[in-house]
Design a protein that fits this description.
The protein has nine helices and no strands. The protein is mainly alpha-helical and 193 residues long. The relative contact order is 0.10. The N terminus is likely disordered.
Length: 193
């Protein structure tokens, strides 16, 4: 007996379906559509949460909570923005809530460190490690909303308009937060220039 194909061949068709169609289907209870959305967006959301929160366990918890919240709220999703913007916003809110619950700022050690090349010396590798650590500390010292804007712009490459939607603010507020974040990072990283 051969295995049964998926119902009406929809699984293969869903893999290439746009997010808005998948979100609609998931809102109607289609678990496979939601699973595809999760696979599609989980890597970037985890990177965002990791850079925001500074440790993998908290980042994984925030992303998991965001997906649970999204699953529950999908029937209410009205496509006023892209699904990616909506899920980014939910994840950012989970991260900011997690940061508010923390007793004190935690240094950010999750910044990817540059790998030493084959030709690099131990001294150069040590300097690169120290630079990466200094940048992680500087990012960790930023006010959380500034850090989120900086991460979304500089690491995820989102445009100002989408960052404003994700953070629930205006583009002017995003620009102000980015300006202050960049200024602070420039000051903190001054010895490395």
């Amino acid at each position: 007996m051969s295995p049964r194909p998926p119902a009406s061949g929809t699984v293969d068709g869903l893999l290439t379906a746009p997010d808005d169609l998948l979100a609609t289907r998931a809102g109607e209870g289609d678990e496979e559509a939601f699973a595809i959305l999760m696979r599609r967006h989980s890597r970037l959301l985890l990177a965002l949460a990791l850079h925001t929160l500074g440790n993998l366990q908290d980042a994984e918890d925030a992303v998991q909570d965001a997906f649970i919240s999204a699953w529950r709220r999908l029937p209410e999703f009205r496509h006023a923005c892209a699904f990616s913007t909506w899920i980014y916003r939910i994840t950012v809110n989970r991260c900011l809530n997690s940061l508010r619950r923390r007793p004190a700022p935690v240094p950010l050690n999750g910044v990817a460190e540059p790998t030493a090349g084959v030709d690099s010396s131990p001294a150069q590798a040590a300097e690169e490690d120290a630079l990466a650590s200094a940048l992680a500390d500087a990012l960790g010292a930023l006010e959380p909303r500034q850090r989120v804007c900086w991460i979304l712009r500089e690491l995820h490459g989102l445009p100002y308009e989408q960052i404003a939607q994700v953070t629930g603010t205006s583009q002017q507020t995003v620009r102000g937060r980015l300006y202050r974040a960049r200024r602070s990072l420039k000051e903190m990283m001054g010895p490395w220039r």
